[in-house]
Amino acid sequence: MSASILTPGSRRGADAMQRVVGRSLWDDARRRLKRNRAAMTGVVVLALLVLAALVGPYLSPYAYDQIDKTDVWVGPLQHGHLLGADALGRDLLVRLLMGLRVSLAIGLVATMVSLAIGVAWGAIAGYLGGRIDEAMMRIVDVLYSLPFIFFVILLMVTFGSNFILIFVAIGAVEWLTMSRIVRGQTLTLKHKEFVEAARAAGLGSSGVIARHIVPNLLGPVVVYVTLTIPAVILAESFLSFLGLGVQPPMASLGTLIATGASDMELAPWLLIFPSVVMVVTLMSFNFIGDGLRDAIDPKDR
Amino acid sequence: MLRFIGRRLLVAIPTLFVVVTAAFFMMRAAPGNPFSLDRKLPPAIERNLREKYGMNKPLPQQYLDYVGGVLKGDLGPSLKYRDKTVLGILKENYPVSLRLGLSAILLASIVGVSLGVLAAMRQNRSVDYGVMAVAILGVCVPTFVTAPLLVLGFASRLGWLPTAGWNGGALPNLVLPVTVLALPQIAIISRLTRAGMIEVLRSNYVRTARAKGLPEHRIVIRHALRAALLPLVSYLGPACAGLLTGSLVVERIFNLPGLGKFFVISALQRDYTVVMGMVIVYAGLILALNLVADLLYAVLDPRVRLA
After folding, report:
1. Interface membership of B154 toward A (CB under 8 Å)
2. What is the domain partition of chain B in residue ranges?
3. Which of A280, B76, B135, B160 is 20 to 30 A from residue A107's alpha carbon, by CA?
4. With an 8 Å Cβ cutoff, are A157 and B32 in contact?
5. pLDDT recorded at residue B106
6. Residue A25: count of CB within 10 angstroms of its CB
7. Residue A299, number of CB atoms within 10 A of its CB
8. Quick check: A230 contacting B, CB < 8 Å?
9. pTM (2 d.p.)
10. pLDDT in tens, chain B (307 residues)
């Protein structure tokens, strides 16, 4: 961190030298993030999307599962349907907003699941080391070699295809990379002076991990989280596309794109609008993730 | 070198064994069985079927029988496709996925590396921004969006290419699916190559090569690219395994007789033996390709010692 501030010849470096007092790593990161135009655009767009997904469905005159035989396959801007309607005459806009809400929720919750498992697993393996580390990481290797889809289908058929389970199933698959990143970071952290100090003061392993290791992992973990959310949204859409995810009449971006793809000859708007929303959502997450990485770990720029 | 391969195999084979064991018992722990799902069979028939496939024995015995068969190269009969064996399914459908996957990897590597090098050499100029924009788009547009859109444009509207079908792997039938599979890979590969190149172009030995007065193309291709490809090599291992075992979405949209659909269908139908066959192929590929990646690493980077 300090290396970049002190880089000779950089104008910002000179500025920073004068008021270097009392700026934490996170202040620094926030400042750098705010200067990143792509990342800030991502933040704004994402905020708008979240707002639309939360509030939008209540403002619409239609319900997401409201079938209207007179409106079957009407195009955009016809019969009061801003984005048209689908094969059952359901309003696309309100379905799109609901789908976005579902996809964002799955992205968020599944990422939290993967975060909880991955951080705990990686930190424990890295901190304890030795045989335990070896065994825990071997388990990760084995799970890596199982096809993702196999894993998810098994979870689905064992517990039935319900909504909550999709969160858990995807989260349970996505934690593998997280645990590797966290373990790597833990290995470097555990030999730092402050960990030694905590241990000398009599804190046990679990205390050190929870109070000293995990808080200091935050940087890389935050970056990886912002990149996991779009990956999860993709994974959910992929499952929905195969008919394994969200069940009708509920919609997700994946189910909307899947039905859009099958009806695209007759009603291309059913494919195009959900695709655009999907791409914009994923892009804003990726921009934020890239921006955060540059902000927290500036040596990669 | 040989010792390294030997040692890695010593780790890989037990891993494969654990994967097979885990998959076997996970599959059996799932509720339902291959004979109970679609139509309720008379108990007598179901009993006979179970007997025929050895499923009346205790589970540990079945496991031992299965592993014994696999070691002899027999993956068993499919429980759902009554006249097919698992090996038969692999032989029939795997070439399709393989051809598709290999073409996509080849295309993605060539285009991705070229774009990445181009972007790195013109860092922070319009070419660079253009390539990076393509890269971001490629990562964010999922295959199930690109595939129908490309079909809609190039097949339905323009009529240049067939909308779907395999047709013995004829070139026009390959173009769209391979492109769709390659696009996200191009995005990731060009990003990795660009990042690697930018770092390497700043290093001392590249400066030395410049100081010797070597022409730029020689520096880039002979000196820089070799080191810049290192991160790519470790990425490509697992990515290849995914591509080579077939892409569900692409095979479904283009109606191709690849292996991808068996991952889903057989697990849903509890076609135990087919599922296990898929898992073995996939896990075997992952482990083998990781080994190849490590070897390539050593070839590309003389600092890496195979120990």
Report:
1. no
2. 93-256+288-300
3. B135
4. yes
5. 92
6. 12
7. 8
8. yes
9. 0.77
10. 788 788 878 888 888 888 888 888 888 877 777 776 666 777 777 778 777 777 777 888 888 888 888 888 787 887 777 788 888 888 888 888 888 888 999 999 999 999 988 888 887 788 888 888 888 888 888 888 888 888 888 877 787 877 777 777 677 778 888 998 898 889 888 888 888 888 888 888 888 888 888 888 888 888 888 878 877 887 887 788 777 776 778 888 888 888 888 877 887 778 888 888 888 888 888 888 888 888 887 777 777 665 4
Q: How far is residue A252's CA from residue A232's CA, in Å, rounded to a whole number? A: 13
**Per-residue model confidence (pLDDT) at position A301:** 39
Overall fold of domain B93-256+288-300 = MetI-like fold (1.10.3720)
Q: Does residue A283 sit at the B interface (CB-CB below 8 Å)?
A: yes
Task: Collect all residues of chain A within an 8 Å Cβ-Cβ radius of residue B145.
Answer: 257, 275, 278-279
For residue B34, how many other CB atoms are within 10 A of its CB? Answer: 20
Both structure tokens of A75: 């195009």
Picking from A265, A272, A279, the nearest residue to B140 by CB comes out as: A279
Helices (H), chain A: 2-5, 11-18, 25-35, 37-59, 92-128, 130-145, 148-159, 163-189, 193-200, 205-208, 214-216, 218-241, 253-262, 269-296
- Classified as helix, coil or strand, A81 is strand
- The single residue listed with the structure tokens 């290797």 is A141
In 3D space, the residue among B205, B178, B14 whose CA is nearest the CA of residue B103 turns out to be B178
Mean model confidence pLDDT for chain A: 78
Contacts of A260 (CB under 8 A, 6+ apart): A267, A270, A271, A272, A273, A274, A275, B148
Per-residue pLDDT for A220 more than 80?
Answer: no
Q: Which of A130-139, A160-169, B123-132 is predicted least confidently?
A: A160-169
Q: Tell me the mean pLDDT in the region A102-119.
A: 88
* Contact at CB, A146 and B22, closer than 8 angstroms: yes
State the DSSP string of chain B: -HHHHHHHHHHHHHHHHHHHHHHHHHHHHSS--TTTSSSPPPHHHHHHHHHHTTTTS-HHHHHHHHHHHHHTT---B-SSSTT-BHHHHHHHHHHHHHHHHHHHHHHHHHHHHHHHHHHHHTTTSHHHHHHHHHHHHHHHS-HHHHHHHHIIIIIIIS--S-SS--GGG-HHHHHHHHHHHHHHHHHHHHHHHHHHHHHHHTSHHHHHHHHTT--HHHIIIIIIHHHHTHHHHHHHHHHHHHHHT--HHHHHHTT---SHHHHHHHHHTT-HHHHHHHHHHHHHHHHHHHHHHHHHHHHH-TT----
Contact check, Cβ <8 Å, A145/B282: yes
What residue in B sits closest to A274 (Cα-Cα)? Answer: B145
Q: How many CB atoms lie within 10 A of CB A37?
A: 10
- The complex scores an ipTM of 0.72
